[in-house]
Specification:
Serine Threonine Protein Phosphatase 5, Tetratricopeptide repeat, five-stranded mixed beta sheet, four-stranded antiparallel beta sheet, 417 residues, 3 domains, alpha/beta, Rossmann fold, elongated, Immunoglobulin-like
Length: 417
Amino acid sequence: MSPRHLTPILALLSLALAAPVRAAPRVRVTVFLLPAQGFGPKVVSRVHSALMKALAKNDRLDIKDSDKLLVEFAGEIPRDRIEQGKSALNEGIELLKAGKPAEAVARLTEAVAAHEEVLAFIKKEQLARSMLALGVAHAASRQPKKALAAFQQLLTWRPRFPYDSDTFDAAHLPLFEKARATIAKAKRGSVELVTEPAGAWAYVDGKKEGETPVVVFGLPVGTHYATYKRQGYIKAAQKIVVSPTEQNRFNFNLKQSEKFLILKQSIERSRAALGQAQATDDMVSLRSVLFVEQVVYAAMGYVAPGRVSIQAYLYDLRSRSRLNYVVKTVELNALDQTLGELGQSLYANVRLDGALDAPPDAPPPPPPKRRRFYATWWFWSAIAVGVAAISIGSWQIAEKTKVDRCPDGFSCVHYGN
């Protein structure tokens, strides 16, 4: 084939190789831990978090927090306020670019307030960016004291947050770094966080601090943000202030999810059916409640001090099939390692479409073994017939020979009876 004819073929091959490969969509999975009686909420939460973390290492899975999914299902996320904060931030930045810093201050002040209200449901970087933009707007309005205060408020709870010179005027960077140096030298204090009910995980500025009630030490003096999370309750955030002279106490009443009872009843009924080859109706109902395709139930039992047994069952809610199950003893002081192994085993050789691989077809039966011809009945029957024929022929010959031997002068007739 000439080079002229190869050119179109090579072009097609180049297009095929250059075409982007679409990644397969990840499967949405949630995890429910079913502890036996006697386990405290702290241990249960540790195991639950570690198991979700272990499964999240699988790039094929999209691990979803059941509490967050439940809040979404119940319509308890303040979406309108979230959109207000987002719009105010974007409009404030556009006003800055348009050279209208005074108007930008008003919009960005609104953005900070809105993001503080919905901090439990958004990424904290959105609030931090609003505070940075507000400080820049004050600086652009020739109000350096207000700008310095805004920068300090941001860096108190986000000390490593960078200045975005690509979006904001770099002329205000020295003032921003001055605020960072001030916070680095600030005094430290502590706060006590209490929730009703107790047993919620408390996070301060995004860092996990422990189970309420809890005392958090070593915080720079100023404003911080605490976030609370407890199964069955709506995630919440609270502004807290650290004092240089006393330990302030902050109380928060958690609100139970209105739809949690539906989920709790479904989980309890599913517990009795764990291990069955087919998912029950209660299990399958989670697909329409939480919008997940697979669910992992992990029953937790006591083995010895520091050791618990985990029986993990993986069900696909589309095919209603139990895809796999793993039983493993877990060391509480090595959760990441032991639960990592469990997570790998649970999804080993599992199809993400939810189907079970059919067993291989049985091999065809071997052909019947044919007997050798001399070992068959017809061979020996033929031999017998042949022998009989030979015997009859010999007899007839012998009889004819007798007739031929009549004495001379006589004619003989022989009857074969």
